[in-house]
Amino acid sequence: MPASGRVLLAYSGGLDTSCILAWLIEEGYEVYAFMGDVGQEEDFVAAEKKALAVGAKKFFLEDLKKEFVTELIYPAVQANCIYENVYLLGTSLARPVIARGMIEVAAREGCDYVSHGCTGKGNDQVRFELAFYGLKPDIKVVAPWRIPEFYNRFPGRQALIAYASEKEIPVAQTTAKPWSTDENLFHISYEAGILEDPNTTPPTDMWKLTVSPEEAPSTPERITIEFKQGLPVKVTVPDDNNKVYTDGVEIFLTLNTLARKHGIGRIDIVENRFIGVKSRGCYESPGATILRVAHIDLEGLTLDRNVRALRDQFTTVELSRILYNGHFFTPEREFVMASIPSSQRTVNGLVRLKLYKGNVIVEGRESSEGLYDEQQSSMDELGGFEPTDTTGFIQIESIRIKKWAQANIRKQQAGVTAKDVYGSKA
């Protein structure tokens, strides 16, 4: 029995979603195409033309850049979010705003279903669908890559490329460059194809956003970023006649431009997907890399030691996991993000940076916050610090260590060897 009903497809204009659009029509659905503008470098006019030519009844483009920056990127910057100590979460950051935009259009247009082009092995299927259900619990989802009729017909990208050729659908992927990409204001990702061999070096022409560090300018460029409560509010570029940027989106676009020019933000990793499969991914996160370096540095000057430790151990770890796993529209995300403003209350000041051949180098920082005392920290004056006070501090700290040592000595005296006490390398 053929399918029926109106479906809103998350459309990127790439190989997968273009073929899925055609396939859904073959299956009997009335297909509407949705694109969220989250800052990707995309010819949206051409994408609309392509979607309609493939057979979409309507095309919707929603500008989501502002909310992407203010609701996702900036909290992630404040919390220093990172996955497995390397990945800055660019793809997962965009999914909540795209999903919300889709649900709003689906409700307005009377769509029976929403659909996406995420594979059955990846993270994005989880992120999108959990977001859909968190926003509209009764929504129905069509996930072609988990439908046997689809994935048996298209076991890989080569089959999709052949199908696109048959349907006369123009796609950027070729048999020579079969990798898949996802791009937004924050980053671009690359996976699949030859990249699935983790020992294959990415070809030079794969990288889209950044120049290679070797080809970056030999003259460094200096900038200043001002933060208020952990958020970037001003970027000053001395080499551009001290030009100042203050709008949130403008700040991020400017940092992206500068980082791209200086080869900043490339990574190549093997990560653990949420569903348990290891995956090789290559990423470019230019402006985000600059912001992270600057923000972490300013926290060293302005953030209380214990607050920072608690934030690092809890908010950073948990929010990163929540974002990566697609748990944005959940009570735990609301709970964790509620802790961010109080942790960032004192993170105010300026950071001076040097951008040079793939590196972000901190050259100085200043803040009016009172947590740093130059005289107290100085090795050249007492500055109100009484060195003899440290004697008592050390004595108190040594109590448990002395007791532990005494216990070990008693064991030795009782015939227990040092190897038993300290291990084989003692």
From TrEMBL:
InterPro entries: Arginosuc_syn_C, Arginosuc_syn_N, Arginosuc_synth, Arginosuc_synth_CS, Arginosuc_synth_type_1_subfam, AS_cat/multimer_dom_body, Rossmann-like_a/b/a_fold. GO terms for biological process: argininosuccinate metabolic process; L-arginine biosynthetic process; urea cycle. It is an enzyme of class 6 (ligase). Pathway: Amino-acid biosynthesis; L-arginine biosynthesis; L-arginine from L-ornithine and carbamoyl phosphate: step 2/3. Residues 6-170 form the Arginosuccinate synthase-like N-terminal domain. One of its GO terms (molecular function) is ATP binding. Keywords: Amino-acid biosynthesis, Arginine biosynthesis, ATP-binding, Ligase, Nucleotide-binding. Residues 179-403 form the Arginosuccinate synthase C-terminal domain. PROSITE patterns: ARGININOSUCCIN_SYN_1, ARGININOSUCCIN_SYN_2. Its EC number is 6.3.4.5. Belongs to the argininosuccinate synthase family. Type 1 subfamily. PANTHER family: ARGININOSUCCINATE SYNTHASE. This is Argininosuccinate synthase.
